[in-house]
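Why do we care about 3D structure at all? Because function follows from shape, and shape follows, mostly, from sequence. That is the central idea of this module. The next example makes it concrete: a single protein chain, its amino acid sequence, and then its structure expressed as tokens.
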Amino acid sequence: MKFYARRIGFYAITLWVAISLNFLLPRLMPGDPADILIAKLQQRGEVPVSTINNIRLLLGSDDQTPLWDQYWGYWGRLLQGDLGISFSKFPTPVTELIAGALPWTIVLVGLATIISFILGVGVGAWVGWRRGTWVDHLVPATTVLQSIPYFWLALIMISVFSVGLGIFPIIGGYDVFEFPSGPEWSWAFFGSAVYHGILPAVTIVLSSVGGWLLGMRNMMVSTLAEDYIVTAEAKGLKPMRILKAYATRNAAIPSVAGFAITLGFIVAGSIVMEQVFTYPGIGKLMFTAVQNNDYALMQGVFLVITLTVLAANFIMDLVYGFIDPRARHNV
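And the structure:
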């Protein structure tokens, strides 16, 4: 119980620090972000005084309000789900933009990461079990794919399968000509989204499976040298039972911990992939926010990513403490 109380306290403090830093970021930036945003809005027409006051309050340029009051006001708006108004998509709320982009990233990057993890750990366990044979050649082959710059691999995939063979579309998350009004709940739209997501997903899998495979292979080699494996072999247990129940389960523990951390960063998306494929996810939304100096949108995206990473690590700490008693006693 002491272990869980300490972890909860640690993550509660970390969450408070993360939200406080997110509040201070635009206020610590050089210049006046509020004036920049107001000037850009005024290029589109007259801006109401109420909007100007809200922008200054949101970005910390309200000199008449003490910083401490601004901080409590930020917490109040945050607890109500108010992350401000986006400049690049004015007057759309930041929460609406994030809610629209988040499912695309979670489904595509999430499924691709899970497939990459399962494939890498499964094949890595087999390669480690058959170490010294021809299957060891899979390690350098997948490592080469991982070492290729991600944007270069994505461009090669587009050049070969989209431009050259014409099998997959070049850009987008769905067919905008077939669905001009945007996403909808229909089997036709689902099929279009899956069709547009195959090439980006394959690119993610090819670029990440090598790391899981190499790590699992090395852990298997180390685990197979342990005394309990030798004892299991001396007892005459079947090789497949030793592989599944003794070697793979113990060798996979570090990979499971790493996978939990990776899941937390799924929400951040793959900025390079989403930019190359013009995929409508969180990564592209973040790129748009930085490109347009959209501070409210940047704050919102950074906050969502931070909360997701903390949540994933918190859950993994609790699960890890449950499956491995040594973690509880070493705290």
